[in-house]
Amino acid sequence: MEKIKANFISGKVSSNTSEAKNLFDVKRFGEKVNEKIVYSLPEAIFLVEQKKMELYDDKNKPLTQEEIIKKFQRLDKKINLKSTVFTDLRKKGHIVKTALKFGAEFRVYEKGKKIDKSHSKWLVFPVSETEKLTWQDFSAKTRVAHSTKKNLLIAIVDEEESISYYEIVWTKIR
Questions:
Q1: Catalytic annotation on 117?
Q2: Candidates 27, 70, 119, 149; catalytic one
Q3: 122/160 same-domain check
Q4: Residue 94 annotated in active site
């Protein structure tokens, strides 16, 4: 398969190539917006690292992986953390989508589930092992997941980029 040629303009990554549309149809990378496929920053990093995408700036100059990371870090200080979790979940076979409208970083579908025929199972919050999480933060994240009928998945990333996942599920005791 040819690499996707994508553009990074005004903080957004998008492509209208047939390769982008094909990868969306087959693997659900990106979101269809009119005639384009728009990618989250972690998706773009993953696709560049997997050599499935080439990213170009607004002057149609190809960007190196280092340039991409620097530009993305200016937009999002937690991009490395988010990208690490995104990559891990994708490599494990999950479909990972943004979840900003749910107040989370990602929504994740179980392996083998069709995105247009099922709902995501988890809302994912990536955190660094050095980050402090208050009980109020934890409670808010749990409530958001519960109110959207999803399980909460806290992804704790250590300094070596190993990830521990903690799933929080509401249980009714009778």
A1: no
A2: 119
A3: yes
A4: no
Same domain, yes or no: 84 and 164: yes
**Which residue among 150, 165, 166, 172 is the active-site one?**
150
Q: Are residues 157 and 84 in the same domain?
A: yes
The amino acid occupying position 6 is A
- The verdict on whether 109 is a catalytic residue reads yes
| 36: helix, strand or coil | strand
| pTM for this entry | 0.92
Q: Which residues of 6-41 are buried (b: 16+ CB within 10 A; e: fewer)?
A: bbbeeebbbbebebbbebbeeeebbeeeeebbbbbb
Question: Is residue 173, in this structure, part of any structural domain at all?
Answer: no
Q: Which two tokens stand for residue 100?
A: 């900003």
Residue 138 to residue 153: CA distance in whole angstroms: 11
Each residue's pLDDT expressed in tens, for the chain with a length of 174 residues? 689 999 999 999 999 999 999 999 999 999 999 999 999 999 999 999 999 999 999 999 999 999 999 999 999 999 999 999 999 999 999 999 999 888 889 999 988 777 777 899 999 999 999 999 899 999 888 988 988 899 999 999 999 999 999 999 877 788
